Amino acid sequence: QVQLVESGGGLVQAGGSLRLSCAASKRTFSTYTIGWFRQAPGKEREFVATISWSGGSTYYADSVKGRFTISRDNAKNTVYLQMNSLKPEDTAVYYCAATWRVRAASEREYDYWGQGTQVTVSS
């Protein structure tokens, strides 16, 4: 069992930046693929980005490519999502999730989830 805790959300103006963190409780965190997802009000949860256990492979949704960067520090059991050039349409609850699978982009492929952190981008 892996417990994940997101932090770093908040209110930011359009064009601004935020960095989200996903901290894990387990030392074997470094063996998991970690993904970020988001869910806006009235919409289904959607994939944002994922990073391999080593950090050597990343994959992004087209909607965030070039603006968001996922990274990880396994020594700190933490994955980050740097979000730049934020838009109002990025407003959502952001979740991190863990899986053994490689390059997983569907929420069905993830086994462990955090509680989420709210990101609100004002226009």
Short note summarizing the structure:
With 123 residues, the chain is mainly β. It contains no helices and eleven strands.
Description of the structure:
With 123 residues, this protein is mainly beta. The chain is built from no helices and 11 strands. The strands form 2 sheets. Strands 2, 4, 5, 6, 9, 10 and 11 form a 7-stranded mixed β-sheet that branches. The protein has a 4-stranded antiparallel β-sheet with strand order 1-3-8-7, with no helix packed on it. Strand 4 and strand 5 form a beta hairpin. The N and C termini lie far apart (40 Å). The model has no long low-confidence stretch (mean pLDDT 95).
List the helices and strands and how they pair.
Elements (H helix, E strand, L loop, with lengths): L3 E4 L2 E4 L4 E7 L8 E7 L6 E6 L6 E3 L7 E6 L4 E6 L8 E8 L12 E2 L3 E6 L1
Parallel strand pairs: 2-11
Antiparallel strand pairs: 1-3, 3-8, 4-5, 4-9, 5-6, 7-8, 9-10, 9-11
Name a few traits of the molecule.
globular, 7-stranded mixed sheet, 4-stranded antiparallel sheet, 11 strands, mainly beta, about 120 residues
